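pasting for the record
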Amino acid sequence: MLAIVIAGCRSGLTDPSPVATACNPSAATARIAMPFFRRPFIGDFPTGNLFDHDRPLGFEDGNGRLLSMCGTNYSLEGQTDGHDGYDWRMPEGTPLVAVADGEVLVAGLSAPLFCPPLGRTVQALVVALGHVDANSNVFFSIYGHLSRVDVTAGQQVNDGATIGLSGNTGCSGTPHLHFGAMRPMPSGLNVVIDPYGWHSSATDPWEANPAGAPSVWLWRDGAAPSLR
């Protein structure tokens, strides 16, 4: 079974520092691009937490430094150190869709997790899908904090099919979608990656980390959710 851990999110609304996305990331600027995903929702919503390339292993393993896909440090204020995906603030009950054809690997409650911002143990409703692109590359898409799950493990889903509704479950202080991506590595481990890839001439610390992996721009042309 795919091991899913949804990094906890701060209790209030968050906005990434403008410097974090100033490189205007695109498929053309990514070190690796394999356009494959549609956006996981219909429409456009404000961004909250970003993927932390310095060490995206959750707030329990944060190191007080945040690094965006542009290779720039950005403000800790209101952000989650070690965040392993992207957050978009949206009303509870917003339909969420499959980013590509795939198989449902996880559908339901996550394992119990102590949430420091809330001061209690919580569980999130999550969905994880497995996808294989035209070149046999395998990727996983992760949806967290849902209010309702509309699929079951083992089910095949089509590109764009509704898989559930956004919510505020788990270690979350405001309704939003936590979206993440993973890929299997030769070591046999499934490792979190940034679906926006890496856009700096400097080395990506997460790719260089023994526990890490190369991030990949996964969005189809025009499908990348805005980072604002």
